[in-house]
Amino acid sequence: MSTPGALRQDDPAERDRTGALDPREGIELLLRDLRTSPRGLTEREAARRLTVHGPNTLTRRGGRRWPRELARQFTHPLALLLALAAVLAAVSGAPALAVAIVAVIVLNAMLAFAQEQQAEKAVEALAEFLPEQATVLRDGVRRDVEAVALVPGDVLVIEEGGGISADARLLSGGVEVDLSALTGESEPVFRSADLVDTDGDLLQARDLLFSGTVCTGGQGEATVTATGMRTELGRIAALSQRTRREESPLEAQVKRAARLIAVIAVGVGLAFLPLGLAAGLSVAAAVSFAIGLLVANVPEGLLPTITLALAAGVRDLARRGALVKRLSAVETLGSTTVVCTDKTGTLTENRMRVTAVWTPDGEMALDPPPEPTGLPEAVRVLARAAATCTSAHPEAGHADPTESALLDLADLLGTPCRPGQRDLDRRALYRFDPRIKLMTTADAVDDTVVLHTKGAPEEVLVHAGRLLDRGRERPLTPADRTAAVQAVGALAARGLRVLAVARRVLPPGRLPPVRREDAERDLCLLGVVAMADPPRAEVAHAIGLAHRAGITVHVVTGDNGMTAAAVAGQVGIGHRGSRIVTGTELASLSDERLDTLLARGEEVIFARTSPEAKLRIADALRAEGQTVAMTGDGVNDAPALRSADIGVAMGRSGTDVAREAATMVLTDDNFATIVAAVEAGRRTYDNIRKFIVYIFAHAVPEVVPFLVFALAGGAIPLPLTVMQILAVDLGTDTLPALALGRERGEPGLMDRPPRPRGEKVIQARMLARAWGFLGLISACLVMAGFLLTLGAAGWHPGDPTGPGTALHLAYRQATTVAWLGIVFCQIGTAFAARTDRASLWSVGVLGNRHLLAGIGFSLAFAAVIVYLPWLQGIFGTASLGPAQLAVVLPFPIVVWGADELRRALVRRRHPAAVPEAPAPVPAPAVAPRPAVEETAHHPLPVLLARHGWSEHRLQHALGVSEHAAAEIVAHARRVAAGHGRHGP
Ligand code: ATP
Fold first, then answer.
1. Is the domain of 189 the same as that of 299?
2. In this predicted model, what pLDDT tens digit does every residue of 696-729 receive, in sequence order?
3. Is the Cβ–Cβ distance between 249 and 310 less than 8 Å?
């Protein structure tokens, strides 16, 4: 309770300043202190408080983290190795080399720092694409606002799946909340307005809610007591500090490789020592060359370049509507082999429209809409009941499309149902439960309460015992059930989403049952409504692309199998055959049989699935070694989203809980975006391989000249100075490497099978190309340029070239040609590395503007080093004449051309194994009848069998074989004996 006197509670200004308030004081007192009411604040007051309290965001503590981040760039093992080299250079009497190495360290640290900052920003910026929303009452009306605009005194409306964005005290209702973000406890806890705790740990108080937690069930209203840094989340300093970015498997792999190469570089440096001494170098010169070689070959810039490429991938994905939460998701996406997608909203537009209804009088098409006059009464009653059994508020932007369609239908048929009045008449609500696929409301109609139920037809039929026929209720006969089942089948086969509607009129004065099971029994079937939800236009193309890319697409839906099969057929899913497996069948499948089913390569339509089934499917696929992307939107989908390699949540229609659990959030809820994301993932991974080839290639033309010098016993002078080697590291390589990270996708990117899981990013094939082909050609060219320049000046092997000799200028020019040769060869290598297989013409020779700019920078840097007199002194270069320049000019063309030829040969020898590209299957007029096995386990037939139908009767009513009918009955007995949810 508040302590009178400790705070002047009645002085709002004082309270505003201190922000202090006891959220556990009496509710009236709390509302008074917050100057609010259960109807919420007015808009104007909310705006005023926003300026007083500031936005509801966490300001980052320890904002100045960059000094530590920058320091880290100087202290990682490779940087320390370089520092050791600098110290060695200094003590061995080569101060210029030491300074140059320090310059390399500093430059690389700055670059790495800038790149990592960019990467972090890319991930952080994603939050702006999908601002957190909260539902509040303002002026007594529900409104969605951005969570940053919440202020103390606001009344939050909390629903299942929603995030809680401020600290609040429950005013009404009860909710289950996941407090794990605050307490680490993953079991949800129950919080209720009726459970008042006035002392003890604040986080355990049973009527308080906290920012950063999520509601996993129930509903309630709560008044905001604290926002921003004044929330418990804000107070827990550790939580408000950014946690360190997790390293992706790719980065870890490359780090290991970089360290291995550093060890090799040290080995090469050490090996050079005796060789250099034997070739006549002084100890000091040999040591400095050893150090130079080491520094040149340590790939210290590789890791930050990869991080930045992944960050560029994240940005690119965000632009396409896919927000990923971790850099590592970019690489995982590229290896996706299976996508499990739901149907509604992802494959379809999620714009429902009722196009037909069925009542005991028969089916009636509503497309085009009929005149309300002369409409059969049964249809009007059906439409009215369906619209009453909703909780949508389309006018406030809260509407499940299914329910909107039902409200629209009632409007269209002249029996409108206004949400405001509907809610006033509501006596009880049993929300839509995706497990039982039913929703029921209790509504006051005149003096009685009527229970309205709608949901999956087979579920409604289980609970229905009567039928409304010509305005009168009568028992539902087996013949009626057959008629209903056949009507549902016919509608579902057209790809329509079918809902049955039923009611039960309670005796006058009777209150709605407390237990859901008591509400959903003895129902009177009114009929069924069928709604169309057209497939998204772009999905068929995306499915075709996924198939070409070797990706299997399974549909996992809560909807009817026939409906799902029809929609799947329309978008091209099931080109290699598909089968429908219902939730009931899945439940009866052993793990081994499920594995066999999934291993067949067919695309499966898992219909009427429960959220648990999603988890089982994801686990089975992963156990098979597949890389699985799985979509989901509900609270119960969270475990499956976490279990899949890439959990995909819906940004528009999904719950906060699903978004929290997912790795990727689609801002447009569109299946095509998943495929686009896979493509972006593949491209990013390819690009990383491209610049690895590029960065690795220059080691050979740097090392070979030293080998030649050493093997010639000094008869051929050193073709490069140590400082020249460092110059390659310092200025000419970085930008083109970054530019290769921005390369566009190579043709055929989506025509090859997914990258096997666990395949290493650096492959022997790449090393062979970088070192054995591109590097070797470059080394030959560089040596040829060097020897040609020396030879032209009249040099013969063994002639002295040291300072003061006649050939010294020619020697300096020759080393300059060799150095420039490396720079030019790297230009050719950069162009070659742009594609792995395709010809450069097919991607556009000048298509990468970043690369052209990077090369421009390299050339300018080279010109400065060659022609600026004071740099000539440092790097041992000399100005070149046109004839000498002409030697190196063709180098890029030779290197690139050679690789172009090699790729052409590879293409000739191994034509691309393009998977057959199936054309999208045109929409079948009627979905194929499921195979015997599916029919046998389909809930409707099973239901009929459980209601005592004989095999003979099933055979006739459903048109199935004798064998199938026998299986249905056998299965029904098994279900009744063991697994039946509803019992026999
Ligand atoms: P998907 O998983 O592909 O998005 P879905 O949206 O059809 O499929 P659910 O929302 O779980 O899956 O719906 C499953 C079934 O439950 C529907 O086919 C329908 O029969 C029934 N249903 C859906 N929404 C409601 C609702 N608001 N009220 C009553 N029944 C509903």
1. no
2. 898 899 889 888 888 888 889 989 988 888 888 7
3. no
